[in-house]
Amino acid sequence: QVQLVESGGGLVQPGGSLRLTCAASGIIFSIASMAWYRQAPGKQRELVAAITSGGSTNYADSVKGRFTISRDNAKNTVYLQMNSLKPADTAIYYCNTDWGLPRRAYWGQGTQVTVSS
Q: What 3 state SS string does 39-84 have?
């Protein structure tokens, strides 16, 4: 079955950095598009960044220039490098892929990112 396992969250001061990792299994990772979403308390889940199998990326306007999504197909892993973190980035971050026939969304368990002094 499809499994997505996130790690790397934590508490960081404003201006700091974190790198999130998502290890995927149960899919042919090299042909899967992957994404990171986040959900802050009282808010809807929102797309943060996505990467296609070919390496094309897109980002939410709020994180452009600060966050970088990347992938390592040899390790079945997608990363989210987060720099210049702000308190507004505080949220649970989820790894996502759409897979299967019929296609459906799969989610990891989430990892908490807290930006606070």
A: ECCCCCCEEEEEECCCCCEEECCCCCCCEEEEEECCCCEEEEEECC
* Residue whose pair of structure tokens reads 């002094």 in the numeric block: 117
Average pLDDT for consecutive 10-residue bins of the chain (117 residues)?
A: 96 98 96 97 97 97 98 98 98 96 95 97
User: Does residue 102 have a cis bond before it (omega within 30 degrees)?
Assistant: yes
Report the alpha-carbon distance of residue 47 to residue 26 in Å, rounded. 23
Is-contact 111 20, C-beta < 8 A?
Answer: yes
Residue 91 buriedness (CB in 10 A; 0-12 / 13-18 / 19+)? buried
User: What CA–CA distance (Å, rounded) separates 100 from 113?
Assistant: 30
CA angle 57, 37, 110 (to 5 degrees): 130
